Amino acid sequence: MSSRETVLNRIRRALADVPVTEVPRDVPVDRCYLRRHGERTDEQSAELLAENLADYRAVVHRCTDAELPSRIASLLAAHGSRTVVAPAGAPARWLSESTGVERVPEDVTAHQLDTVDSVLTGCAVAIAETGTVVLDASPDQGRRRITLVPDHHICVVRVPEQVVDSVPEALERLSPQRPLTWISGPSATSDIELDRVEGVHGPRELEVVLVTS
């Protein structure tokens, strides 16, 4: 018996007493699990998010909204970026102080995208307990591929509006009909020797800017 047949047989046995006319919405689901672990202020949630992002080897920055253009300019300069892809919905002011850096539209070819130095996006939501940033292809985030090809990703997160404590709270804000990209640190994998390799299927460098009003 193949592994596939073994799994399917187990599923059939588990469903043996389920009426064929039953549909998922007919069965109430007990959702008594904790939606979050403890109570936090907005600032404590932001601090936890920063701590967990850093634990995943993302680089975290804090600034005000007024300081954001200069902070982005300094990050691009530090990376030596001459080109940056930014989705159409990303505010023009984000790059207003990035002199000498060419803004590349998101609808370039895959070959052209591979030559871009950095990508700049917003986010849909950021999860403090897991250090995860979620993108949902909204106008300020663009198509999924732009955050998977360039080696350097700058992601803007607004605090406290876009920060939640837990995954259940994040799911309440997200639509399953949108293409979701969940990012916990730079792209990385490990081989059987546990040697970490970054940049395998996404950016080698993730910089998250937590922006307050």
From TrEMBL:
InterPro entries linked: FTHF_cligase-like_sf (IPR024185), LUD_dom (IPR003741), NagB/RpiA_transferase-like (IPR037171)
Positions of the LUD domain: 47-211
Pfam family, one: LUD_dom
SUPFAM superfamilies, alphabetized: NagB/RpiA/CoA transferase-like
Superkingdom in the source lineage: Bacteria
Protein name (Swiss-Prot/TrEMBL): Lactate utilization protein C
